[in-house]
Amino acid sequence: LNIRIFNRLQRTITGWPGGKPNADDSNRPERAQPAKKRVILFSPHPDDDVISMGGTFQRLVDQGHEVHVAYQTSGNIAVHDWDALRYAEFMLEFADSQGTLSEEDRQAYQHIIRFIRSKNSGDTDTPEVRRIKGLIRRGEARAGARFTGLDDDHIHFLDMPFYETGRSRKKPLGEADVQIVADLIERVKPHQVYAAGDLADPHGTHRVCLDAIFEALRRLKNHDWAKDCWLWMYRGAWHEWAIHEIERAVPMSPQQLRRKRQAIFMHQSQKDRPPFPGDDAREFWQRAEYRNKETAQMYRSLGLAEYEAMEAFVRWKG
Questions:
Q1: Domain 34-77+131-316: which CATH class?
Q2: Domain segments of the chain: what residues?
Q3: What phi, psi does 234 have (nearest 5°)?
Q4: Would 44 disulfide with which of 33, 87, 209, 264, CB 3.0-4.6 Å?
């Protein structure tokens, strides 16, 4: 029994998250073929990709797979008002300095600035302020994905409608939400899909986003390509998989962990103390590193290879 458990855990470890080309994959967590896979990484919020699987994301890109990242929601409620004010003032002053600012646009910018400066706690943002906050998150997500090596045409912003209430309470998952996800999956025809299985986020967004992926895959299951599509679930922002649940563990060196941290730092609006930190006072990069190092320590304590950190995954089998 001890040997069987040891072997099972050892076989979860792989530095080839997309599969090792030309290798015997009978005891590996991922298929060897095709050597270059099409991959979609779904990120419920604009930073979940790099927080929860930034090291694996980097490996997939470095190893030549066709990687797409899809940010499912705008994340616009999780931006501090002072960040939005800074950007609104920048836009006004930049346009003014170029001599291209119409009086109508000036008044629109000034209205946004006045609203933010006079806003009371609990007030719902106007659509214009939500748009600014969403664009802040979008720019940060794009910077993180570019840092990881992704081309702009592989970065997708889905802006799922259920999220766009301007408040922490969201709408139920709707047909439009599922269709947006299904359209992207059908267009890419992925061999691998990554989704957040970390369902402890404060407002339940991860759950809704995961349900949309489940439903989209259910609708597409009869397509020929879908039979070769595997769904891997990640955690890390709020919780981590228990060691007996882990089906794939991707190790990171100290250098790879630093690169992951740098990608997380691209999300400047979420540094220090984000608007919705949950019950954990640490910054997201600190949580992620702690959990990744803890996973590596668990493997090490069971007599397995020593690594700086590990990202863990569970495969959904429907």
A1: alpha beta
A2: 34-77+131-316, 79-124
A3: -115, 160
A4: 209
